[in-house]
Amino acid sequence: MIMEDLEQLRNSLMDEIAGSGDLDTLEAVRVRALGKKGAVTQHMKTLGGLEPDARKAAGQALNVLKDGLAAAIESRKADLAGAALSARLARETVDVTLPARPAPVGHIHPISQTMEELLAIFGEMGFSVAEGPDIEDDFHNFTALNIPEEHPARQDHDTFYLPPVEEGGARMVLRTHTSPVQIRTMQSVEPPIRIIVPGRTFRADSDATHSPMFHQVEGLVVDQATHMGHLKGTLIDFCRAFFGIEDLPVRFRPSYFPFTEPSAEVDIGCSREGGQLKIGHGKDWLEILGCGMVHPKVLQNCGIDPARYQGFAFGMGIERIAMLKYGMPDLRPFYDSDLRWLRHYGFLPLDVPSMVRGL
Ligand code: PHE
User: pTM here?
Assistant: First the structure.
């Protein structure tokens, strides 16, 4: 083996290393030079046949060559890896200043949104949610609420009756209001009671402002010292929070419900100037809910002693207050599943109503 040969081998391998354009090519060069059958390794194997002095000199030269090549390969490798990373970073750059692509989103139905708003307001006041069945028996929907068999209110409600299960048996009803949940709650939990009841209700009635299926929210408070002042304070605060008008005029007008005594209907101030309905201070009033002190007979029907406990209750139509708040003229499209209507009147899913963030 002649030193010039080594010099030549070194030069050609160094050229190959420098010329490797990617990591695979570089690895192939490494195998050809330093691998088990590589050029340098082959030379190493010939050392055994040399005289000791020549072997020493050649061995040293080969080691220097080997180390030099290994270092060159490592450094080339680092360059190639760095270049590959830079290329990838350049290829995958993201322009963070571009506007976000609008994702196709569904909308929250105004009924759901309004229910959430009601729950946010009354939740803040310490009410919890109660629910009851859509199909009720006569006792819970009527009798326990002080609406006996012959009471005219039964006719007022345009009740949907289900066919009796057996000949001549009792007919179940689609509940005509959420008030039966008052009864179910008072029968099953001890006062103090403070509940809010959102749910579906049914009456055989249909026009621009009535649907055979609609939604109500019921409220019930029962405690030892509950009085009309609590009812008024609760509902005035509610109306002002719901419509977002701090000084919204609220009026309690004497009325009649079989299950409350005294009873009232609540009106809020509005103006109808120029055919445009505007909620707030104005000449006109708009009825939005019914309420009253729970009738002693109703407490009694549920096993609550009216000498010890008193309560107030209220109920309102969710569609109605949603239409008033959001300026929707017609009730019928609520249930048409028309996407154009939903996109127009619907709410964004992340706009969750809360008393802190706003309704
Ligand atoms: N249930 C009554 C209705 O449907 C509303 C109401 C509830 C009135 C509670 C007074 C108290 O019209």
Answer: 0.71
